[in-house]
Amino acid sequence: MDLSAHPDAAAWGRLVPRSPLVRRLLAHNPSPFTYTGTGTFVVGTGTVAVIDPGPADPDHVGALIASLASETVSHIVITHTHMDHSPAAPALQAATGAKIIGCAPLVLSDDGPRADAGFDPSYAPDAIMADGDSISGPGWTLTALATPGHTSNHLCFALPEEKALFTGDHVMGWSTTVVAPPDGDMAAYMASLKKLIDRDDVIYHPTHGEPVTDPQRFVRGLITHRKQRETQILKLLADGPQTIPAMVAVMYAMVDKRLHPAAGRSVLAHLIDLRNRAVVAATADRWQLA
Question: Considering only CA atoms, which of 50, 154, 27 is closest in space to residue 99?
Fold first, then answer.
């Protein structure tokens, strides 16, 4: 994936305004899993919160610290602990004295085929936020919204002053979310998507990709897409027992083959959900209709 010509390439390492209360600094870690890179968000002015400080890349951390040299960082807020989201938190805390707050720690020995190498084992928050918990600063508030599915510890954060939602990897602005067992859970992910439908947010700020400016319609599209994937699986199984790689080859024929292992994890997540609903069953490495 060559992203050197993408408009975001000019934004790497620069703090760019998104709205009166929101700025973004893009990490230079583009990949088939991170798109143009991890978006680190700064909320507020003067006294600010930093959401998802990003990977432990010295250039990214240095650019973030330099960009905020004239401001006070009160909170470092983490949506979840994948390696492209939270590892910069200790360095930013050492430079600013800010509290690390947000999701609960979570480390698994195997999180499947991801380019960001799984979970951050160094994450040590000063406080854990639960659904509905809030922090605030001059002119801004961030309220946690529990959205398990992509990971069991995933949180989104609402900024009510702008009716905005920082969606982490729960809703991305360029691709569908990877739901990778054993921690990723398709049933939880779908429930977390449905949780967003009745909210009054007018914009989403995903950690990867562009802002989502018609969020409820976008989320309904994501739900429909997942239901279509489930239907594809059931149609394939109607022809007889199938392996996951064989299903991925058909279902994701037009997708970059480098993403097929991760797509296989999402297929597995669908199959586990279907098995829990007694719709399918597994024998060895093959799946079939129950």
Answer: 50
